[in-house]
Design goal:
- It is built from twelve helices and 17 strands.
- By secondary structure, it is an alpha/beta fold.
- A hairpin with a 4-residue loop joins β6 and β7.
- The radius of gyration is 20 Å and the shape is globular.
- The protein starts with a strand and ends with a helix.
């Protein structure tokens, strides 16, 4: 089997390539990436050591995808992943990459009669529905109230039943548009596809920044004794996200590659779930325990555009229908990131510090 991973030198893509190759040594795993994100180049030596061909290309260029030759599965893990992309600047890049580039990938799958594994995002859900949900403020976090009037929101989090009517960000819109095109390709061309709306994904190999990769950012700042800031919602650090360890994501994609018939025509929300959620304040405490460092954290009350007070994934559908559920806790996510930074400190210092 030949599997192409677009965005293959990124956080999710590189982890997926290396773990699939380790589990299935006879498979040809190809990493395809334009190396735009700083730090992605560090993964090339690991690919070479593990017999993973790297192709320097861009999904916006059909010629680059054609040069890959025949393949059996394409995992579309490439994206401009920042929620704020295009909100205060020209949105052309995020649209070209996340929509037109993805469509090139779909066409490549048709040409090769290949299966598609598409990584979508929880950000397809409109901001206002989530921000206007009933919530409670606890000592260390905000939570969704048990009493809700909006279908698709409960104390468990956000389910697939939440309305898609409303604004969400250019990032979320390009991903949703790609989902809609996949439905057309499946209906009229017979494309086999698994589509998953992932929440926050975290773990080793992630080059965290303020706009994407907050878990790694939080650990890195504690590791190197640098300052942070609680931004928005009063500056208390109580906003919450559920966190999915990248290893749990890989386990799901492995299942999708080999049993895609279970996923055809369906879209699932996938994340850490309520039991694997944390506020920024709680993340700080975890980082302090693991590193032994206490850092300065400033406070900014004003909330940023497109931010969310709470996002927690309701995994009920995929757990009941597929049997998948996350296995790694929030604490394990942070510990694994700490161990990775410590083991690669000199390489990562210039990027994460």
């Amino acid at each position: 089997m030949k599997i192409v991973v677009t965005g293959g030198a990124g956080f999710v893509g590189s982890t997926l390539c290396l773990q699939l190759k380790a589990k299935y040594p006879t498979y040809e795993i190809v990493a395809f990436d334009n190396l735009k994100r700083r730090g992605s180049e560090l993964n090339l030596s690991d690919f070479q050591k593990n017999g993973i061909p790297f192709f320097h290309g861009d999904i916006r260029n059909n010629e680059d995808l054609s040069a890959l030759g025949n393949f059996d599965v394409l995992v579309e893990a490439s994206a401009e992943p920042s929620v704020t992309a295009g909100l205060d600047s020209d949105p052309t890049y995020v649209i070209n990459n996340n929509l037109y580039g993805s469509i090139n990938c779909f066409n490549a799958c048709l040409k090769n009669k290949a299966k598609l594994i598409f990584l979508s995002t929880s950000r397809v859900y409109p901001i206002d529905w989530i921000e206007n949900a009933n919530f409670k403020e606890q000592e260390t976090r905000f939570i969704f109230d048990e009493s809700q009037t909006t279908k698709g929101i409960s104390s468990k989090g956000i389910s697939e039943a939440l309305s898609l009517e409303g604004a969400r960000s250019f990032y979320g819109t390009t991903k949703l548009a790609s989902e809609l095109f996949i439905q057309e390709y499946a209906a009229f061309y017979g494309l086999q596809a698994a589509v998953t709306r992932f929440g926050v994904i975290a773990g080793p190999r992630q080059m965290g920044k303020t706009d994407q990769g907050v878990v790694t950012l939080w650990m890195a700042k504690h590791f190197w004794n640098q300052s942070l800031k609680y931004i928005g919602y009063g500056g208390t650090g109580k906003q919450v996200r559920d966190i999915l360890h990248v290893d749990d994501l890989v386990a799901l994609i492995d299942l999708q590659i080999h049993q895609i018939e279970k996923f055809n025509g369906k879209i699932y929300n996938v994340g850490g779930g309520l039991e694997n959620s944390a506020s920024l304040l709680e993340m700080t405490k975890i980082c302090e325990r693991i590193t032994g460092n206490t850092i300065e954290i400033a406070s900014e009350k004003e909330t940023r555009t497109a931010d969310l007070r709470i996002f927690v994934t309701d995994n009920s559908s995929i757990e009941s229908e597929i049997g998948w559920k996350p296995k790694k806790s929030v604490e394990m996510v942070f510990q694994d990131i700490y161990d990775w930074i410590r083991e690669n400190e000199k390489q990562l210092e210039a990027i994460l510090k």
